[in-house]
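Recall that a protein's primary structure is simply its ordered list of amino acids. Everything else, from secondary elements to tertiary packing, is in principle encoded there. The following example makes that idea concrete.
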Amino acid sequence: MEMLLFLMAFPAVIAVLLYVIRNDAARNFLVIVGAIVTAVASVALACMHIASGLVLFDCESAIADTACTVISCICVFVILGFAVRYKNALAGILGIVQLIVVLYVEFSFAHDMEVPQGLYVDSLTLMMVLIIGVIGSGICVYAIGYMKDFQAHEPEGAKDRRPLFFALMFLFLSAMYVIVFSNNMAWMFTGWEVTTLCSFLLIGYTRTEEAIKNAFRQIIMNLAGGIAFILALLVCATQVGTYALDEFIQIGMANPTLVLLPVVCLAFAGITKAAQMPFQTWLLGAMVAPTPTSALLHSSTMVKAGVFMLVKLAPCFLMSPVPSVMVMLTGAVTFLLCSFMAISQTNAKRVLAYSTIANLGLITACAGVGTPEAVWAAMFLILFHAIAKSLLFLCVGTAEHHIGSRDIEDMDLLFERMPRLARFMMLGIMAMFIAPFGMLVAKWATLVSFVQMDQVALILILAFGSAATFMFWAKWMGKLAGIAGSPENVETTVHRSEWVSILLMAILLVAACVLIPVLSQVMVEPYVVSVYGLFGQDIGTDNLWIASICVCVVVIALFCGLGRSKKRTVGVYLSGVSRNDDARAFQNAMSGESLATARNWYMEDVFGEERMAPVGVIFNSVLMLAAVVMALFGIALV
C-alpha cells in the first residue's frame, strides 16, 4: 500500500515545487527527476502485483474523507472564480449545483458510508499505472524543450507561466493515480474533479480569447459529468448502501435493477470525460493548448479516465440493457462519424483529435457490449492508442516548431527535411491502422466480440469506420513518404528532451506490439478472468506471435534502411524536362514551367463537420436522455 500512497502523493509534491521554482535549470532538473522516479515507481508497482489479481488494501480514514471533500470544494471555488472573472454564467451555475450536491452528500450520508478497503490494484489498474507513469512522465520530459521554444515565440515581455504549466502536468498524474487506485468512489470523484480543473487551466494556458472559450466549453461539459457522478454517489448512499467500487460491481451483476440509475449516471460521466458525442467539442477545443497538453489529455490522462470508468462498469452493462445500449451505441456512432470527419481535416492535430475521439468511441462500444472478449479488446485498444497517440502528438509538435506548420499539406518532403522524425511519425501512423501492429489485432478482437453477440449494426459500423480510418491515415502517410528534391534538413535543432521522449514512445510502441502475447497472458486475461471467471477469446497465441515477428521486420525496414538503394538524384518529373530539381519544377507541354505537387482529397462537402457532427450530437443526446428517463422509471418501480 505504501507504493500506492507514494504514487498518489509524489507527483503532487513535485507539482508544488515546480510552481514555486522559477529558475529554468532547477525546473528542468526537477521535471526529469520527478518523471524518472514516477516512471520507475510505476513499473516497480506493476512488477510487484503483475500476477496478484485483485488486491484490496485496508485504508479507511476520516481525515482522508474530509480532505477529499475539501479538495472537491476547492476545485469548484476555483471554477466559480474564473466563471465570475470571465462572466460565464453557465459554468457558475453548474459549479454551484455541484457544490450544493457535494456538501449535501457529505453532511447527510458520507459518515455512514464506510469503505474499509479504500484502495486496490488489479490488472486493469496496473495497465493504467504504466500508461500514466511511463507515458505521462515521458510527455512531461518532452515539454521541457517544447515549452522553451513555445515561450520564445511569445510576444516580447509576455509573462512566463511555465511554472504553472509543469505544476499542472504533474498534478494531473497525481489525480489520475487517485482515480485508478480508489476503491472508495468518493475518493475517485475527488481525483475526477481535479483532472477536470487541471484540464480547464491547461486548455486556457495561453489566455487568448479562443483558449478561454474552449476552456469553458470543457469545464461546462465535464461539470455536467461531475454532477452525474455525485448524483450516482447520492443514489449509492440512499439505495445501494455502498461506496466500494468492487461491491458496487458485484451488486450490479447480481441485481442490475438496484444499480440501474447510478450505473447510467456513472456511464454518462465516463462518456463526457471520454469526449464522446455530443461532448466531442471540448476535446477538439483542447487543440489550442500547447502540444504536451494535447498529448497528455489524449493519451494518458483525461480521456483515459473516462474509458477506464466505462471498462470497469462493463460487467454491469452486460447484465443491464438500458446503460448497455446507451454506452454501446454512443461509442459506435461516435467512432463512425468522427472517423468520417477526420477525412475532411488538413490540420494534423485536428486529425489526431478526431482519431482519438473515434478510437475512444470504439473502446466505449466494447465496454457497452460488456462480454469478456469485448473487455479484452478494449484493454488493448486503450494500451495501443495511448502509446501511438502520444508518439504522434509529440512528433507533430516538434514538426510544427521546425517547419512552421501543422498542416498535413505542408509536410511535403518531411522524409528529407526531418528524416528521423518522419520515420517515428510513420511508425505511429502504421501502428494505428495496419497489420501486424497491435491496434489492428485489437480491432479484430472487437470484431470477434461483436460477431459473438450477433451485433450486426456494430459490425457494419466497425467496417465502415475502419475504412474511413484507413483513408485518413493512408493520406497522411503518403505525404510523409514522398521523396523528391534535396531540401534542407531542419531537425538538427530539435531539443534533446524531445528526442528522448519521442524515442521512449517509439520503443514502448514496438515493445507493446512485439510482446502482445505476453501482455495478454500476464495482464489482460487475468483481469478478464478475475471479473467474469472465464475467458473465451478466439485469438490464438500462435497468431499473436506471428504478428510480433512481422512487427520486428517492419520496424527494421523502416529504421535500418532494409531494401533501400544508395541515394541518387533524379528529375522530379520523369515524363518531361526538369528545370529545377530542388524547387520540383519541370517544363510543361506549353514549354512553360510548372511545379510538381501532390495534394490529398479531403471531401469536405461530404464529410465536413457541419454535415456529420449534428447527426451524432442529436442521435446520442436523444439516446442518453432516453436512458436517463428509463433509469428513473426503473428506480420508481423499485
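Residues 2-49+61-153+160-564+581-637 form one domain. The CA atoms of residues 98 and 355 lie 32 Å apart.
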